Amino acid sequence: MKILKWLEQICLLAGMLHVGFLAFCYFQGYELSYYPYSSYVTFFLLFGYYAISIFRDSKEKNIRKMNKVVLVIGLIALCVGIFGFFPSQSPSPTVTAGDTEIPTVQGGYCWNGDLAVCAGDPLKTPAPTPTVVSPKEEIKIEYPKGLTAERVKAEKMMDENNGKPVNNLETNNGAVVAPEEKGVYVYHVLASWKQEEANFSFRIKVE
């Protein structure tokens, strides 16, 4: 019985440490792609703790009933925490030129690592009114804290004035530089993480 008691305490301590680890990673802004594996470990450690508790106290009817209730509540909370913690679809980026936010439209994506949720719908037409920017102005592409993409690149850029693709697209650390030539442009951007990827588009008007 002493061994079971030690195992019970070890499971509880290790489970709490994993919960603390997840919280630390989240607030430090580390990538979510690494989190599911630790979440599974946390789940099984806490499950083991409650299972051992029920077994050890099986001779005491009242405690057994209480532990069963706690077990059910704990499992529900863990499921909500684990699956609610990871977004089922890709996050929306914030695209800005100076202090002006540029509207974006979500395209296809594959998200949530091993629990991948994929959508391959074609890119929708970006906002009908393009955002005005200055020639050669830097356009920043940012994701929420903890979801920063490992790579962000522009797949292609179309000049709506004549429908021709524009080559030599300038990129730098997840940012793009607006063309020097005046006109309306559509950017199709691909962002990727360790196991996920997503693309989106936005429209600008260089004046």
From TrEMBL:
Keywords: Acyltransferase, Membrane, Transferase, Transmembrane, Transmembrane helix. One of its GO terms (molecular function) is acyltransferase activity. The chain crosses the membrane at residues 12-29, 35-55, 67-86. This is Acyltransferase.
